[in-house]
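To fix ideas at the outset, we first show an illustrative case, written as a sequence plus integers encoding its fold:
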Amino acid sequence: MDTSSPTQKKKPNELTSTLTTDYISGFDLISIEGYRQDGRKPDELRHFRVSFNVVSDADGSCYMEHGNCKLLATIYGPYEGESRSNQEQAVITCDFSMTSYCVSERRLRTFGDMKSQKLQMAIQRVFQQAVNTETYPKSQIDIHLKILQSDGNDYCPCVNATTLAFINAGEDEKLFFLFER
């Protein structure tokens, strides 16, 4: 129990310790030993590993590890999609799913929940804008994302893996960006 009065000045070490534990409510971003929760030093980047052509029947595919996040992105298309009148550009669809064992807390549903739907719609919107869809009128491009292991932040790795899968599919000249955060 702290017996010092609120008006009494604290030493710098006490202030840092108090801010870390009080502000984050007991959740320390950096341990006393100087490491993050995943074992990295504060100035150390997450490891990054990529493998291409991991799905043989896909037009482009990418297995990516980014920190503790592991995912598979596949691209199918462009192919002649459903007949839509006056469709002057390609339609991009996104299918997103997570394995049941990919997160620390067990979830009964790993697809169709609100978080998955929001991520799926965000990825679809990003690539509808990023890919030069006017090049492929009356066609469809399908993005399939499968999270194998998650560390909480799935959006950035999904966009990066999808971008790399598009590059693997030979669509790199039609992409406008590589997302980095």
